[in-house]
Design brief:
By secondary structure, this protein is mainly alpha-helical. The protein is 75% helix and 0% strand.
Length: 503
């Protein structure tokens, strides 16, 4: 017997699919989530190709990655205001349309500045699409059903970062790098059409009537200026006028942003939540961790293609399994949290994640590829334990009405950390390769040796970043954490962050 559907459901589609409305929401969200997550990894394997085609330096092409991540960070906080005010369906589909339009424009780009600008447009859509989709999913899967929602989105969460390098490598090598962006068009259009058919509109009855424009501008400009200073330091030197100038301007703008957010009635990011120890400490642990992994992934791509001479597809196939380790350990980490406690999971997870990077200090142009693949899988295994503990500790003590603002802070800081991590590690790679006697290309034995040492220094920098969360984790008290979590509310759906970060 066909199920009876409430009037608010789209009866035609529901009868056709035999799915409750909440699963239709999940399907629509998966369209957007898959594109958003895949675009965090699909471009990496094309970086050397873009550098050659546009005759641009690595530090310039790097902005196709960091610019996208920065754009995500800028527009994540604004998503909540727009969706509450104008409706989740409307904003989600508009965000998806912006993402698709940005993808098309990226494929048509004729220079690196154009590509960076269009990647920023992509980030506008992605920055709003994921938090609004998460809000829709959280509303349809309340309370105890959050785990079911996380399980539903686990498939694209695992597949997207795993397939991203492979798909990007194949398209770059056998079709054109432009198709790593064009591939979003059919997926995005299908998602928009399906969303128009099945989604219902939802607006908050008491949505705030203004957005903190001054905070949004100062925060965005501050992050961009600081990121520019870090990314240019490798080419111009840390003491150059432009690096120092942009760095100081960035710090000043970020300081102004902090003061503004602590004083306005409707902040774009409610930084007052950072006065809570467990929320602040968890963010302090996760920021350098995501920064380290963001930088590591891009440096490894350059290592495989520029030093080892692998094609984009070969590099993508080598990196593809990197998310498998995290996907394997994630279910176990979720099950043992209650019995093990956050402190031991955090210390063990971050320590093993840091140690998993040390073997990369020994790889060189002759290391067997199977060893690199095994090291990548092993790298992801411990990270899930740290992330599950950190996210539980982060959101558990937060009251339900503050879960949204807390999630915005975490998502924004995570993307900023990833963009800063990429810029910092690439800068270290360029600077240290020069200091070891390397030149513009790897054409002689001496230059190749310098490049190997430069990559080793970059990998070590990723390891060093993990010492920060390890030090913070030492001060986590299990007893106080248990007391704080005794009044816990169901945390927002954040499974995507675990696998994406680990992959």
């Amino acid at each position: 017997m066909a199920p009876r559907w409430p009037d608010r459901y789209n009866v035609r589609v529901s009868r056709l699919t035999h799915l409750p409305y909440k699963y239709l929401v999940a399907i629509v969200f998966i369209f957007g989530l898959f594109m958003d997550l895949m675009d965090t990894t699909v471009v990496n394997v094309a970086i050397p190709t873009l550098s050659r085609e546009f005759h641009a330096s690595t530090s310039a092409v790097e902005w196709t990655v960091t610019g996208y991540l920065l754009s995500l960070a800028v527009f994540i906080p604004a998503a909540g205001f727009f969706s509450d005010r104008f409706g989740t369906k409307r904003i989600f589909l508009i965000a998806m349309a912006i993402f698709v339009a940005g993808s098309a424009a990226c494929g048509l780009a004729q220079s690196i500045p154009q590509l960076v600008a269009f990647r920023f447009v992509q980030g506008i859509g992605g920055g709003m699409m994921t938090p609004v989709g998460t809000a829709m999913l959280s509303r349809e899967f309340p309370g105890a059903e959050r785990a079911k929602a996380s399980a539903i989105i686990a498939v694209p969460v695992v597949l997207a970062p795993t397939l991203g390098p492979v798909i990007g490598g194949y398209l770059t090598e056998y079709v054109s790098w432009r198709w790593i962006f064009y591939i979003n068009l059919p997926v995005g259009v299908a998602g928009i059409l399906f969303g128009l058919s099945v989604l219902e509109e939802h607006k908050e009855a008491y949505a705030q009537n203004r957005i903190d424009v001054l905070g949004l501008v100062t925060g965005s400009a501050g992050a961009a200026a600081t990121l520019y200073a870090i990314s240019q330091a490798g080419a111009e030197g840390w003491g150059s006028t432009s690096v120092v100038g942009f760095g100081l301007a960035g710090v000043a703008l970020l300081a102004a942003f902090t003061l503004i957010e602590l004083r306005v009635r409707y902040p774009v990011l409610d930084l007052r939540l950072l006065k809570r120890w467990f929320f602040a400490s968890s963010n302090l642990m996760m920021m350098p961790a995501f920064g380290a992994f963001g930088g590591f992934i891009l440096v490894l791509t350059l290592f495989l293609q520029e030093l080892r001479g692998y094609s984009p597809l070969q590099a993508g196939l080598i990196q593809g399994p990197s998310a498998i380790g995290t996907a394997i350990s994630l279910p176990l980490a979720s099950r043992i949290y209650a019995s093990v406690g956050p402190r031991r999971m955090l210390l063990g997870g971050f320590a093993l994640a840091a140690l998993s990077l040390l073997p990369f200090l020994a790889i060189d142009a002759d290391t067997p590829v199977w060893i690199i693949v095994v090291l990548l899988v092993m790298r992801g295994l411990p990270f899930a334990f740290a992330v599950v503990a950190a996210q539980t500790l982060m959101f558990g003590p937060i009251e339900s009405e503050k879960q949204g603002p807390a999630s915005s802070i975490y998502s924004t800081l995570r993307q900023i950390a990833a963009s800063f991590g990429v810029a910092l590690i690439i800068t270290i790679l360029i600077d240290r390769t020069k200091s070891h006697g390397g030149g513009a290309g790897v054409t002689t034995a001496a230059a190749q040796h310098a490049a190997v040492l430069g990559y080793h220094d970059a990998f070590f920098a990723c390891f060093a970043l993990f010492l920060i969360p390890l030090a913070v984790a030492y001060f986590i008290d299990d007893r106080k954490a248990a007391e704080a979590l005794s009044r816990r509310t169901p945390p927002p759906i954040e499974a995507a962050e675990v696998v994406a970060g680990g992959g």
